Amino acid sequence: THFALVMAFAVSATGSMLVAQTPLRTLLVGVDHRKSISLNGPWHYLVEQPPARELYDEKGNIRDNGYALNTHPNISSGPHNSEYDFSTAPTMKIPGDWNTQDPTLFHFEGVVWFQRDFQFQPTPATRTFFHVGAANYRSVVWVNGKRLCNHEGGFTPYDCDATSLLKPGNNFVVIAVDSTRHQDDIPSVNYDWFNYGGITRDVSLVTVPSEFIDDYDVHLKRGASFSAADANTVSGYVHVEGAGEGRSVTVRIPEANASTTAVTDGNGKAMFEVKVNGLQLWSPGSPKLYKVELQAGTDALTDDIGFRDIRVDGTRILLNGKAIALQGANMHAEAPIRGGRTNTDEDVKNVFSMLHQIHANFVRLAHYPHDERMVRQADREGLMVWSEIPLWQRISFSKQEVYDKAVVMLHEMIRRDRNKAAIIFWSVSNETPNNADRTRFLTALANEARHEDQTRLITSALIGPRVSEDRIMQEDPLMDALDVVGQNQYIGWYEGTAEDADRKTWILPQKPFIMSEFGAEAKFGNHGGPHDRWTEEQQVNVLQHQFAMIRKIPQMRGVTPWVLMDFRSSTRNIPKLQDGYNRKGLFSEKMEKKMSVPLVVKTYTEDPAVKP
Ligand code: GCB
Predict the structure, then answer these.
(1) Residues 119-178: pLDDT tens digits?
(2) Ligand 1, atom 13: nearest CA belongs to which residue?
(3) 365 alpha carbon to ligand 1 midpoint, in Å?
(4) Domain's final residue, options 307, 326, 352
(5) Do the beta carbons of residue 226 and residue 455 sit within 8 Å?
(6) By the 8 A CB rule, do 488 and 432 touch?
(7) How far is the CA of 192 from the centre of ligand 1 (A)?
(8) Parallel, antiparallel, or unpaired for β 111-120 and 169-178?
(9) Is residue 337 located within the same domain as residue 282?
(10) Residue 96 and residue 201: Cα distance in Å, rounded?
(11) Ligand 1 within 6 A of 334 CB?
């Protein structure tokens, strides 16, 4: 059904544009709100050096007769051809990247095999999905020695129907994860963050009835304009996988005494609309979430959902009809203090404590979707979010297969999080080169996002134009495809001095802009004058002049310094200063406050650089 949707869009709206050609598979929405069997915990692992002949044959095709079989050699008698054994192999914690768990794997890029046993009791007339929150970058799953599925993309979830492979009692699962980078991947071979490999987010088994709710979209009904008085209707769809036409679906919001029934169409999709008297809208000051109960046949699910309206009016951004200014920071999915990928409640708590300290009402989750916990927390706390797919700088924009991957990633991101009010922007890319192939690619992708979700704004972070004069004119044609434009620039760090910012005049189209990146590196505890590189004083100086410059740009509605916290990057190799970290954080990787924090706080609370 989702496939049909993409194709329909292609015919009606893209014209000669790129058209996605990969069918989208079932993805369970709201897994964290379903009963499931967690497979988190210790998994056995074995490492394969490239070219990883247990995973790939000479032609690069995936093999199913290698480690996937999980056989045990009889070590006391020979000869034996299979020389591996998961049962006596060491374990590591899943979810977790391998780099921070095994010192010998810190720089490892390649294939690591994971295995665990689990108990299972099949129930008749149900389907059981193997759910992986994220595995970076390619992963292949076998259950009881049989291939279940493959997935590409390191930051979005996938679900595979394991029903026919599971048996009562003892079962085992093997997952091979390959973190090797390739030119035609998303991201491509080169990027400024750390290539943490492994099964980096929750893994579980989810059992549902044979007809079940896989996907739903519950949002404040969107009209041509917003009026507070009329903001009392919730609409959307519930998709029932396995169902045909005529199944009834119930949507209930008990707290508001609202309930409605809708009926599926031939694709299993039931569109609904329900009036909610006294509906309280979600906003940062009042992040109201409702328990929304969905039911279809014997399947039921309750999610926590907020309702709000976000739109653009000229150069302003309106939340529930009120103009807003966004103040916050960028953040990578880098776990504070312990390092590694963010994937626990504790990590989320730490990240939010830094966001609170700077009085943020907004965060750009760079440069890929983060753990679902982050977005749930943002929903609960009323923090607005920019969510992005990892189209970072140089991607193979001329290739259809790369476009297909991008569309799948975009849909996986949107589907996982579309019921979370906190997300106000979907970003299709970061700092891509301004050329025809890229503009065609990203314009099609932005349209795809807009078609899939009309309740959010589409953005992208642009870079350039590089200027020598004091006039900076942004004319990137990609802006035509965006509702809100992100602008990155590093005056005072990659170019010129902090003071150069004072003389710049920005000539921008009449759209809302976010100054989505700017900043300077400073090693925590390194002090000197305002022009001494790598010092906290210089970072303060750069940010100060940046804020002053931003304050003079009428279209600016948001500001996110790069970056909230120092993060690992394999391209940052200046000993003593970087030591493998990008140091543009307002906080160090141990959450130590640099001198820039008080400046940001003062700016955000007393003298904002952006106005609603
Ligand atoms: C950028 C990129 C970001 C980098 C940052 C930097 O423009 O968007 O991913 O980490 O600059 O520090 O160079």
Answers:
(1) 999 999 999 999 999 999 999 999 999 999 999 999 999 999 999 999 999 999 999 999
(2) 192
(3) 13
(4) 307
(5) no
(6) no
(7) 6
(8) antiparallel
(9) no
(10) 7
(11) no
Ligand 1, atom nearest to 463 Cα: 7
- Ligand 1 pocket test, pick from 391, 427, 517 with the greatest ligand atom count within 8 Å of Cβ, gives 517
User: pLDDT per residue over 269-304, tens digit each?
Assistant: 999 999 999 999 999 999 999 999 999 999 999 999
Q: How far apart are CA 270 and CA 245, in angstroms?
A: 9
Residue 4 counted as domain residue: no
Would the CB of 570 count as within 6 Å of ligand 1? no
582 in contact with ligand 1, CB cutoff 6 A: yes
Q: Is residue 20 part of a domain?
A: no
Domain boundary (209, 242, 274) is at 209
Calculate how far, in angstroms, residue 533's C-alpha sits from the geometric centre of ligand 1: 17
Give the angle subtended at the CA of 9 by the CAs of 388 and 274, to the nearest 5°: 80
Residues 248 and 200 in one domain: no
Give the model's pLDDT for residue 10: 41
Reported in sequence order, the residue ranges of 221-347 that DSSP labels E, i.e. its strands, are 233-241, 248-253, 258-263, 269-275, 290-296, 299-305, 310-313, 316-319, 322-323, 326-331
Q: What ipTM score was computed for the predicted complex, to two decimals?
A: 0.99
**Which residue's alpha carbon is at the smallest distance from atom 4 of ligand 1?**
192
Return the percentage of the chain with pLDDT > 70, whole number. Answer: 97
Residue with tokens 């797919």: 389
- Burial environment of residue 316 by CB neighbours within 10 A (0 to 12, 13 to 18, 19 or more): middle
Rounded to the nearest angstrom, the distance between the alpha carbon of 344 and the centre of ligand 1 is: 25
- The conformation of residue 161, written as its DSSP 8-state character, comes to E
Do 242 and 373 fall within a single domain? no
Query: pLDDT tens digits, residue range 86-135?
Result: 999 999 999 999 999 999 999 999 999 999 999 999 999 999 999 999 99
Name the residue of 582, 583, 586 to mutate for ligand 1: max ligand atoms within 8 A of Cβ.
582
Q: Check whether residue 500 and residue 407 sit in a common domain.
A: yes
Q: Which domain holds residue 430?
A: 312-606
Ligand 1 site, residue 443, Cβ cutoff 6 A: no
